[in-house]
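Troubleshooting: if your tokenizer reports a length mismatch, compare your output against this known-good record of 138 residues.
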Amino acid sequence: MKARNSTSDDGVRPWMTVHDAEAADYLSNPLKAVFIYPFIGRARSSGDVAAAHGVKLNAMSYRIERLQRLGLLREAGVERRRGRAVRLYRATADAFFVPLAATSLENLESMIDQWSQSLQPLYLHALARTLSDRHRHW
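Known-good structure output:
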């Protein structure tokens, strides 16, 4: 039996504590961290994730290179498609633990503030869509 934080046969850990300051800052920033989510738990192509996020392929390729350099993403295989093969990528762990001390954030309050500011527009958009869908007379 493998230890809880050991690497599985496919090279993916169940969880990983992030100590590298640059990787910790990346994951603690909600506007950046959103780009690793699609790769957690499964292999995806850069094109699939770019389309899902509404970003250009070259912008997604840049993010993938950065995530690989930070040790958060790895190449997981190649999918044969008509025309040419497509590389697949996967997160190096299924969960990441980022200690506050590893980030450049001052304290827990600043982290919560950063996340709430970035998530508030998404929440308000979802709320407005739900209300308009359910209460067309508004």
